[in-house]
Amino acid sequence: MHGGSQFKRLMQFLAVALFLGVAGHVHAEYGINFPEPATPSARDIYQIHMRTMTIATVLLIIVFAIVSYSLYAHRKSRGFTPDQNFHRGWFGRWSWVLVPLLVLGVDMTIAGSAEEVLKRLWLVPKDKDMMEVKITGHQWWWEYEYLDQGVRVESRYVPQEKAGSLYLRDVDNPLVLPINTKIRFLNTSADVNHSFWVPQLGFKKDAIAGYITETWAVIDKEGTYRGQCAQLCGTWHARMPIVVQAVTPEKFTAWVGAQKTRMAAAEAEAASGKVWSKEDLLEKGRDLYNKNCSACHQLDGKGLPPAFPPLMAGGGFPAGENMTKPLQERGFFKDGKIVVGPVPKHLDIVLNGIAGTPMQPWNQLNDLEIAAIVTYERNAFNNNTGDVIQPADVAKARGATAPAKSD
C-alpha cells in the first residue's frame, strides 16, 4: 500500500514536470517585470513598483520562514500538543490588531510617494512652449493631430500577413515624437470611450467623446514604445495598438517636413480638376475602403448588423427591424439597398455621418479620397451601379449638404 502511494506521487511529479516542459515552448513573453521606462514619470512609477515588490518579498520570506518553522517544530510526530488557550494570551489577543497596523503602515509609506508621482503626472504644466498633440480615438483606429505643426496622421493596425510576430502590436503610421521635449497630450473620442495607454511613457488616459482630458510627458531617450487601447471599445478593441516612435528633434523636424509635403501633394492632386477614370478610382477606393471603412462594414461589405449595416444590394436590414430610429428616419436603409440608391444621399452620409448612430462624418478626407471610396462602394460587392464619382462632385456635395439631425 505504501509502495503504491509512492508510485502515485512519482507519476504526479512526472506529469507536472512534463506539463511545465511543454508549456515552456508556448510562452509568448518571458518578461515578468515592467518594461524599461522612457520618461521621468514612468521611472518614478517603476521605482515605487520595485520598492513595493521589495517590501512584499521581505514580508513573504518572513511569513514563509515562520510557517515553515512552525510546521517542522510543532508537528504531531514530535509529540507537540496544541495550545487550546492561545487566543487568551497577550499575542493571541493583540496580533489581530498589530499585524493589520503593520501592513497599513507599509501601505502608507508607499502611498505618500505614489501621491507625489500622481501629482506630477496629472498636473500638466502651463508652459507656453509645450508641444501639443491631440489624440482622438475611433472605432477602431487612432488619429493624431500635431496642433503646432499642422500635421494630421491616421494610425491603424497592420494585418497579420504584414505584421508577423508583431500582429496587433504594430501600426502603419506611428506617433512620432521628439525626445527631450515637453509634450501635452489632449485626449478625446469620436464615438465610444477609448483609453490611450503606453506603459513605458508612464500614463494611461481615457478618451471620452465630448470631453478633452490631458496629460504630459518628456521622453528622454530614442526608441519605439508600444501600447494599446485600455478601454473595452467594441468588437475590434484588440485592433487598436499604439506605437510611439521617439526621435531626436532634428529627425522630428525632417519628419514633419515630409508629412507636410505629402499632405500638400494629396491636396493638390484632389483639387487639380482632373477627371479620373473608373479604373483609377476603383483602385484608390479599394485601398481607402479597406483602410477606413472595413473595420465596421467588413472587407466583403457584409457589415456587422445591427450596428453597422451591409454595403451591398439586397443585404440591408428589413424595414423597421434591427434599426435605430435615426436610421429608420433616413429611409435610405428600408429597402436594403444602402449604396445603390441616389448618389447625393450616399455622399451626404459619408460626409456628414448619421447622428445617433455609430456612423461618423468622414469629411476630414479630401475630395478625391471620398470620390474614390464612394465609387468603389457603388461598384464593389456585386452592386455594379456603374456610377463614377469625381472629386468635383464631392466638392459640390460639401457645400450642398448639412449634417444629418435626429431627435
In a nutshell, what does this entry contain?
The protein is an alpha+beta fold and 407 residues long. It has helices spanning 2-23, 40-73, 90-122, 160-163, 249-270, 278-292, 294-297, 325-330, 343-352, 367-379, 391-400, and strands at residues 131-138, 141-146, 151-155, 175-178, 182-189, 194-198, 203-207, 213-218, 223-229, 241-247.
Whole-number tally of structural domains: 3
Structural class: alpha+beta
CATH structural class of the largest domain: Mainly Beta
| Strand elements, count | 10
Please tally the helical runs, counting DSSP H or I stretches of 4 or more residues: 11
Q: In whole angstroms, how far apart are the ends? A: 79 Å
Largest sheet: 5 strands, mixed
Uncertain stretches: 318-323, 328-332, 402-407
Features:
407 residues; alpha+beta; Immunoglobulin-like; Cytochrome Bc1 Complex, Chain D, domain 2; five-stranded mixed sheet; elongated; disordered C terminus
Could you characterize the architecture of this molecule?
Helix content is 43%, strand content 15%. It has 407 residues and is an alpha+beta fold. The protein folds into three domains: 34-67 and 90-123, no CATH class; 131-262, Immunoglobulin-like, CATH 2.60.40; 271-400, Cytochrome Bc1 Complex, Chain D, domain 2, CATH 1.10.760. Strand 6 and strand 7 form a beta hairpin. Helix 2 (40-73) runs antiparallel to helix 3, helix 6 (278-292) crosses helix 10 and helix 10 packs across helix 11 (391-400). Residues 318-323, 328-332 and 402-407 have low confidence and may be disordered.
